[in-house]
Amino acid sequence: MFNLIPRQHRKKLEREYRLRVATILFGFLASGLFIAVVSIIPSYIISTTKINELQTRSDALKIQLGDSASTPLSGTLRDVKDLTTALTPTASSSTYSRVIENVVRARVAGITLDHIGVSLGEQGTVEISGSAKTREALVSFKQQLARVSDVQSVDSPISDLTKSSNIGFNIHIILKHHE
Question: In three state form, how does the secondary structure of 5-54 look?
Fold first, then answer.
C-alpha cells in the first residue's frame, strides 16, 4: 500500500485524532456527571425539607408531652410491658412451634403426617394422625418420638399395629411439665 502522507504528518494526524477522541469522551463523561448531579439536587432538597419538618414535629411533640414519666400513657405502657414479660414463655417451656418441629424431626421414612394437634397448658398433649407404609416404620416413629426431650409418654391404640402395611395411625403424646 502506498503512503501519500509523510511519516511526520501521519504521526501528527494520529496524535490529533487521539486528542479529539479523548476530548469527546471527556465531554460525554463531564456531561453525564453534570446530568447526574442535576438529577440528585431535587431529591436532596426534598429530603432536607422532610428532615427539617420531622425534626420540627418531634420538637413540638417533646414540648407538648413534657415529662414523659408524669403522663398516664407511660404508666399504661409500663404495665403492658410487665404483662408481656410475664406472659413470654421461658426457654425451658414448650412452644407450639417447638413441639411441632420436634414431631416433624422425629418422622422416619414411610410415615405421612395428616394432622398434628397441640394443646399446651397444665399438661401439654399432642395428637398426631397419619399413615405408615409398614408396621416397622410406625414402631420406629413411636420410638423416635419417645426420645424427644419434651416427651413424657407416647401412646397409640394396639389396633394401629394389627395391619402390616398401609396403616392409619393415631398417636397421643403427653409432654413433660416444665416449671
Answer: CCHHHHHHHHHHHHHHHHHHHHHHHHHHHHHHHHHHHHHHHHHHHHHHHH
